[in-house]
C-alpha cells in the first residue's frame, strides 16, 4: 500500500508540473500599448521622427510608458520590458540585466576644460549619436589660426555607426564645426527651425548643400538606432534652444545644452520645467548640465531688463547716432534694439557679415519682427539725420576683423566713428578677450564717442544659468549620476561641489576631460579607457595641416625673427663660388647692424673652410654646422635666438 501511495503522489506531482507551463502559455498576448510598440518603430527604418503632444499637462505616452529600448532582442528581454514600465532608476535594473554586459558610453570630444567647441558622443554597441558640433576661437598664442574644432578621429573610425547629429541651438560653439565634420561624416543633422536656418547658410558657404537637415520641435521623439531623443524647450540667448532627454537601453540621460531660466522671455516661449520635473519623477540615469555660470550666485536676469535699458538710453540720445555691438546670434537682443529704435523714430542698419547673415535668416523665418521700412542698408545711412540712425554691428568682443574694430580704426568702408556718436557694447567679455575689448573702448573714446558697456549700465545679461537656477534643475531632474559640462575646470569643479551641496554622493559625480569615457552598465558607472581627442586647427582652407610644430615655428618667428644664409657652391669643386649672403627679417635692420652682419659672414666662412678641410661636402652636414656656428655667435653678441635658415645652391 505504501508503494501504491508513493506512486499516486508521484503521478500527481508529474501532472501538476506538466500543467504549470501549459497554464502560463494560455495567457493572452499583451496588447500594442502593453508592448510599448508605436507607429514610429514598426516601419523598420533606422531613423524616423514622430511628433508628440507638446502640452506640458499631457506629455507623450511614449515618454512615460514606452520602454527604453525597442529594437529586436531576445524574447526574455522584451518580456522584462513589458512587465516593468520605468518609474524609478532602480526599477530599470531589470532592463539593465537583460541588456547583458553591453555598456552605454558618454564621450565628450569638446567643451570640457575649455569654453567652446562643444561635442558629446553617445554610444551603445553599434549605435552612435552626436550632440552638437561646435568650434572655438583661437587664443593669442595660436598665431594665424582662424578657428579650432574638435578632433573627430574616433567618429571617423566608427563612421558606419553614427546615426545622426542633434543640435541644441545655433551658437557657433555648438554648430560652427559642423561643416568640417560633415565633410568626413555623411549623416543627417537634426535641429530646430532657426538652428537649421543658420546651419543652411554655413553649408552653402562650404558647398555642402546635399546634407540631410531634419527640423524638430520640442516634444517630438527622434529615433536614432537604439536611442530616442526628445527635445525640451529651454531659454537661452538665442531663440529655438532645446535640451535633450535621450532614452537609452540603460536609462534616460538629460543634457541641458546652454540654458537659463527666464520667466519673461522675449518670444513668450518659457522653459519647459514641467517636463524636466516629469522626467525626474520617472527616473533619470544621468544629467549633463551647463556649467558656464556656476561660479556666479543668484539668478540670471531676464532678457527683458536689457530692452528697458535700451529704451531709456535711446530716449536720452536725442542728437547722436547710436551704434550697438552685440553677438550676431542673439536674435532676442536684436529684436529689442529694433523695438527701441522704432519707439524713437530711428532707422536700423546692420553691419558685419555674420550680423547681416543672421538677421536675414531671422527675418525670413519670422524670428525678427519689424516694419519693412525701418531696415535700411548700411550704405544709405548718410541720407538720414544722425539722430535717426541705429547701427547694429558685430565686434562686441574686440575681434580684429569685426565691423566695430574697423570703425574704431577708420577702416570701415561705409562709416567712421565721429565725436558725439554713442556706442553700446551689449555683451560681456568672454574670458581671454578682456584686453581686446578694452582696447576697442579706448580707441572709440579717443575718437570722441560716448561708450556704454556692461559695468556702466544693464546693457547685457547672460544666457547661462547661475547657481540658483542650476540648483532648481538638479532638484527637478534628480539624476542618479552627474557629469558637469561646458566650462573650464574651475566651472566643472564648482558644479560638482554644487551637486554635493544638494545631496549627491561624490562617487556619483564625474569630471572628465575631452576624450574621457564614462561607461554605464548593469553594475553602475565608471571611467573607461579614453579615446583620441584634442584640437584641430583651421587656417584658411587648411584643416589640420597646421600642428604644434608649425605653431612653434610661427611663435619663434614672431618673437625672434629670421636670418637666411644664401651660399652658392661650385658644381665641379663643391667650393664656395658666391656668398655667404645674409637676409634678416624681424631680427635686425641690416643697414644699422653692419658690424654684426660682417662678423656673422666671417663666422660662416670660417665654418665652411673647417668643413672643407675635413672633406665634409654633403649639404645636410654643411647646413647643420653653419647653423650651429652662426646661432652661437648671434646669441653671444645679442642674447637672441632668431630662426636660421641656410640655403645652398649649386652653380656651374
TrEMBL record:
Protein name: Ribonuclease J
Key words, A-Z: Cytoplasm, Endonuclease, Exonuclease, Hydrolase, Metal-binding, Nuclease, RNA-binding, rRNA processing, Zinc
SUPFAM superfamilies per UniProt: Metallo-hydrolase/oxidoreductase
Chain positions covered by the region annotation Disordered: 1-95
Family label: Belongs to the metallo-beta-lactamase superfamily. RNA-metabolizing metallo-beta-lactamase-like family. Bacterial RNase J subfamily.
Localization of this protein: Cytoplasm
Database matches in Pfam families: Lactamase_B, RMMBL, RNase_J_b_CASP, RNase_J_C
Subunit: Homodimer, may be a subunit of the RNA degradosome.
Residues that, per the record, bind substrate: 460-464
Biased composition (Basic and acidic residues): 1-23, 34-48
Compositional bias segments (type: Low complexity): 50-79
Residues passing through the membrane, by range: none
Physiological role: An RNase that has 5'-3' exonuclease and possibly endonuclease activity. Involved in maturation of rRNA and in some organisms also mRNA maturation and/or decay.
CDD domains with a match to the protein in the record: RNaseJ_MBL-fold
Organism: Fusibacter paucivorans
Domain of life: Bacteria
Enzyme Commission designation: 3.1.-.-
Main location: cytoplasm
Cytoplasm among keywords: yes
Start and end residues of each Metallo-beta-lactamase domain: 116-310
